[in-house]
Specification:
The protein is an all-beta fold and 331 residues long. Helix content is 2%, strand content 40%. It has 2 domains: 4-42, no CATH class; 61-317, Kelch-type beta propeller (Neuraminidase, 6 Propeller), CATH 2.120.10.80. The chain contains 1 helix and 32 strands. It is globular.
């Protein structure tokens, strides 16, 4: 009887730990730690999952966020207190496992937008500085250098209530309520960009200044795509929602997760956009809305937010695996 080496031209390798790179796809190996034979199959977005990350030091909702799954900064938001919650100036950074309280932002506010490269380079802009009506959104823009916050050139328009990652600290997009106006940040100043077709009310956003997606929110399913010049209406989400968080690379790849919808309530639903259609994937472990979304559709971070109890410190990490390891069994 032929053995595996005779059939494949090489023997089964012995490894102490499971491989995690796509270069092993199609392989069979022996894990000497578990004493089992295993196979390596392709991973991909269809099997991505949410897992628990480190909890925030201060529970909050409606914070601005920027960075990656392993290097993010958040600032502002609502904290627990007398309804409808207290406006915060508190900021924290994430290193991939835990949050650290850092210097406060200069202007306490909630529902600000954020963009960033890492937990040492980000901006937070817009957002109301009041906890309760009459709300007055701001145009304030603050830059984070890893040590302190500095107010830099303001937006041309006030902006608030769009959730997700919007670019980097030197190339960001402002898309928010009220109205349809959008602006681009070049690291120094904001300039007007093409208007969306429909105002976004607590919508989700992801992408770059040349390639982006925004959802209309307001418990609807609408979505628009930006190609660097103009916005066009595109395929609708499967789940109507508002207050969901967006994470993604461009207008052909991103996710929208969570939010709320009457009469369903708080949502765990995660949908992936491939440039043509939305597909529901694995749900958030805990339902929430108005959370700080950062990172990408490959490695995303959902920090804080509102949940059925109130304001949460819960952090969830979204990860797309490169490979899937299966243990071989006999029957």
């Amino acid at each position: 009887m032929a053995n595996y080496k005779e059939l494949e031209g090489f023997g089964v390798q012995t490894l102490a730990t499971d491989p995690d790179s796509a270069g092993w796809v199609g392989s069979i190996f022996y894990n000497s730690t578990s004493g089992t034979f295993k196979t390596v199959k392709p991973g991909g977005i269809a099997i991505a999952t949410w897992a628990s990350g480190g909890d925030l030091n201060t529970a909050r909702s409606e914070e601005g966020a920027g960075g990656t799954q392993t290097s993010t900064v958040i600032g502002g938001g609502r904290s627990a207190g007398s309804p409808p919650g207290l406006i915060m100036d508190n900021a924290e950074t994430y290193d991939g496992s835990s949050w650290t309280t850092v210097s406060t932002i200069n202007t306490a506010r909630r529902s600000a937008l954020g963009a960033g490269d890492s937990n040492t380079a980000a901006i937070i802009f817009g957002g109301p500085s009041q906890a309760s009506p009459p709300f007055s959104a701001t145009a304030i823009n603050e830059s984070w250098n890893g040590t302190s916050w500095t107010e830099v050139n303001d937006l041309n328009n006030i902006v608030t209530n769009t959730w997700g990652s919007t670019g980097t600290s030197t190339s960001a997009f402002s898309v928010g309520t009220p109205g349809t106006a959008t602006e681009k940040w070049n690291g120094t100043s904001w300039t007007a960009s093409a208007s969306t077709n429909t105002p976004s009310a607590n919508g989700a956003f992801f992408g770059t200044t040349t390639s982006a997606i925004v959802t209309s929110g307001a418990q609807t399913t609408g979505a628009e795509s930006y190609d660097g010049t103009s916005w066009s209406t595109t395929t609708s989400l499967n789940q109507a929602r508002e207050g969901g968080g967006g994470m993604g690379s461009n207008n052909t790849s991103g996710i929208v997760a969570g939010g709320n919808y009457d009469p369903v309530g708080f949502l765990t639903t995660t949908e992936y956009w491939n440039g043509t259609s939305w597909t529901e994937l694995n749900d958030l472990a805990t339902a929430k809305y108005n959370f700080g979304g950062s990172g990408s559709e490959i490695n995303g971070l959902a920090s804080g937010g509102g949940d059925p109890v109130g304001y949460t410190s819960n952090t969830q990490e979204w990860t797309v695996p490169d490979v899937v390891i299966n243990t071989l069994t006999t029957s």
